[in-house]
Write a structure and sequence with these properties.
The chain has about 475 residues and is an alpha/beta fold. Helices cover about 35% and strands about 15% of the residues. It folds into 3 domains: about 130 residues, Fumarate Reductase Iron-sulfur Protein, Chain B, domain 2 (Orthogonal Bundle), CATH 1.10.1060.10; about 170 residues, FAD/NAD(P)-binding domain (3-Layer(bba) Sandwich); about 150 residues, FAD/NAD(P)-binding domain (3-Layer(bba) Sandwich), CATH 3.50.50. The strands form 4 sheets. Strands 3-2-1-4-15 form a 5-stranded parallel β-sheet, with helices on both faces. Strand 1, helix 10 and strand 2 form a beta-alpha-beta unit. The longest helix is centred in the C-terminal third of the chain and has 18 residues. The two termini are about 30 Å apart. Bound molecules: flavin-adenine dinucleotide (FAD) and iron/sulfur cluster.
Length: about 475
């Protein structure tokens, strides 16, 4: 008999997993589960039209359904060199729009991709890429995050000599030093970035452009440059008492944990902010031994970043299962210190006030003050791009949006001739799949700029905007309609 219900993924016990940075919350499908789930797909490919990177989802689900995960990996690699990573942490807007939503649940597109990718330790054997010799072109990539590494991979397949410069001692950007290890194991990142290196991409770690090498030197030495520098400059709240030693921005907090530090957070941790980074900081605090963790957000649950989407719901469910406590509609206004240590947070309750037309605004109700005891405070209040690496001359030349994002044309080129950009520093969506899409776009732009399009091997060019009809925003709206 036909079975239409989505095959539930097995999860680790929250009480066990919250003690471990190694244990992934979700176990991954078995062969039988993957086959059963993939067999539900009707192949309409509506989902592909909402995927930022235009993956041929219907086709790769079909290859999993017929027991050919190698073909799934080959199809994913047409546009994305990170199937096991994206198979774990993609925001998966494609599932929000899946036509099977009301017929047993949307296809588990993300879990199916993970299943296929996890079957292979060495993608080289599956992909069987016939690498070209180097052509006489050199490209520098600044930043070894998903945007830079995607661009590097597809350029290298065309014989371009690519050097990636990375400030940190590890590659992966926020895949490695933002997303915690329990959601995205280091070995998975090493497998996929290792494959990119094996295709001839050189990655120079511990090399901060603007400090170790001047940006002007890069401009002189390469035929084109791709900036995938992300957003690594913290935005702090500036709440009185912020100079305490037990307060940290979430990106520093998560980076230091990822690089091996065991930060002493105590028992009571408060995370300020409402997005995915706040969840990751809260759940990492649990794994460092904290027992009482609150996320304070100034707006309502329905206003939190990323909502409405299945992904936002899943992230919150996982946090709630691990006993993270959410405190909605509050404004912290003082960190009360003893010496250089915050002991309490003082906060107001907010009231959401609807402005004419715009988004409801949180207005603090100041007549009553609340307090919460705390051992450690994490501010997950956003971050921006640090442009200091460019130096004065190139900073002046680089056009930015009013929000500080890099402006690029359709080819991904900035206002500086020969300098391309993508990822968090450039797009508004700030997720992995969009960073990869930007890398793909820039590959075509760079090859065109280098004037080598007539010699490219089309088989290895990323396929941009396959059957584009919907945007990820349409997928979100579809989901919002469904959960009303
Ligand atoms: C905590 C957290 C959790 C997240 N969770 C998810 C998730 O579950 N799903 C999802 O899709 N997205 C998630 N994201 C967002 C996602 O990680 C980013 O959208 C993505 O990594 C952006 O890619 P990027 O290549 O633009 O930049 P990044 O990944 O930020 O990489 C930029 C790299 O450039 C380097 N760099 C910067 N300046 C220089 C310089 N001057 N010289 C040399 N190197 C430099 C940086 O060190 C960094 O390694 C999360 C982000 C965070 C912070
Ligand atoms: S929208 Fe759903 S049913 Fe249609 S191809 Fe995509 S996963 Fe399959």
């Amino acid at each position: 008999m036909l079975k239409f219900d989505r095959v539930k993924i097995q999860e680790e016990n929250p009480e066990e997993r919250k003690k471990s940075f190694i244990m992934e919350p979700m176990k991954g499908y078995s062969l039988d589960e993957a086959t059963a789930e993939a067999s539900r797909c009707i192949g309409c490919n509506i989902c592909t039209q909402a995927c930022p990177a235009s993956l041929d989802i219907g086709a790769y689900i079909n290859s999993t359904a017929v027991g050919d995960p190698g073909q799934t990996v080959r199809i994913v690699f047409e546009n994305l060199p990170f199937p096991a990573i994206i198979g774990r942490v993609c925001t998966h807007n494609c599932e929000d729009i899946c036509v099977m939503y009301d017929t047993g649940g949307p296809l588990a597109i993300r879990h199916l991709k993970r299943y296929a990718a996890d079957q292979f330790n060495d993608y080289g054997k599956v992909l069987n890429i016939k690498k070209r010799g180097f052509i006489n072109k050199k490209v520098a990539v600044v930043g070894a995050g998903p945007a830079g590494l995607s661009a590097a991979y597809y350029l290298a397949l065309q014989g371009v000599r690519v050097t990636v410069f990375e400030a940190l001692p590890v590659f992966g950007g926020f895949m490695r030093v933002g997303i915690p290890r329990y959601r995205l194991p280091f070995e998975v990142i090493e497998k996929e970035v290792g494959f990119i290196e094996s295709m001839g991409v050189e990655i120079k770690l511990n090399t901060r452009i603007g400090v170790d090498i001047e940006f002007s030197k890069i401009m002189e030495s390469y035929d084109a440059v791709f900036l995938g520098v992300g957003t690594h400059k913290p935005r702090m709240t500036g709440t009185p008492g912020s100079d305490a030693k037990n307060l940290m921005h979430a990106t520093e907090f998560l980076r230091r944990i990822s690089l091996g530090e065991k930060l002493p957070v105590g028992k009571n941790v408060v995370v300020i902010g409402g997005g995915f980074t706040a969840n990751d900081a809260a759940r990492s605090s649990l794994r460092l031994g904290a027992t009482n963790i609150s996320i304070m957000y100034r707006r309502r649950e329905i206003d939190r970043p990323g909502y409405p989407s299945m992904n936002a719901n899943e992230e919150m469910e996982e946090s709630v299962d691990e006993n993270v406590n959410y405190v909605w509609e509050v404004t912290p206004f003082e960190y009360v210190k003893e010496g250089d240590t915050i002991k309490q947070i003082k906060y107001w309750k907010n009231q959401m006030v609807q402005d004419t037309g715009g988004r409801a605004k949180p207005v603090p109700q100041k007549e009553k003050t609340f307090t919460m005891d705390v051992d450690f405070v994490v501010e997950a209040t956003g971050q921006e791009t640090d442009f200091s690496f460019l130096g004065d001359e190139y900073s002046r030349k680089l056009n930015l949006t009013p929000h500080g994002g890099i402006i690029v044309d359709q080819r991904g080129m900035t206002s500086i001739d020969g300098v391309f950009s993508g990822g968090d520093s450039t797009n508004m969506t700030h997720d992995l799949i969009s960073a990869v899409r930007d890398g793909d776009t820039a590959v075509i732009g760079i090859l065109d700029y280098l004037n080598v399009m007539d010699t490219v091997n089309e088989e290895y060019l990323p396929l941009l905007d396959r059957w584009k009809k919907f945007s990820p925003m349409v997928a979100k709206m579809a989901y919002a309609d469904r959960v009303k």
